[in-house]
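Need tokens for this chain, all 190 residues.
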Amino acid sequence: MEAVTEETGFHAEIVPRLDAGPGSRPERVLHALDGTRSAVPPARLTDAGQLLWESLRHRLPSAVRADAVLGLDAGGIVPALALSLASGLPYKLAWKVRVPLPGAVHFVEGHANRPNVFAYGITPGQSYLLADDEVTTGVTLVNLVQALRAQGAHPLAAVCLAEDTWYNARSVIEELGIPLVSLTRIGQER
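Here are the structure tokens for all 190 residues:
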């Protein structure tokens, strides 16, 4: 199943995962920035970042006051960098590595083979834009939002490159008061 959103020209597709474990999703969303089908020209990264930033500012004008972009390991690295470059905001990355650093926030990516994720240097009172490559069930972002709030941080919004609408994650995330901006939506036809 493929989707190309006309407004953005961004391509994504759902493919079966050949290595899905018992607790993992049986499919994976591939997209135009993941480098799986072909090498990604730098302009595609900067264009996607601009589209995300413009869409986010339109939907949530207060996004310009965020303290940082927080990308999720590992798929969220590319959109976090793209959004950081477009917005001029610094970025942080959450990793599936536990180390003794201050400001640690632990959350769970429930459908992953390695579910424990850690963001470091999270400061109470600071606000974050959350970035991931795909949103499917919304569970990871919900867990992250709750963990950040428990630490006293303020998640403002979430952005993703591809939103799989089959699982209705948008409503789960937005029930927490977190707007979701995506470059393309895929999954309605399943």
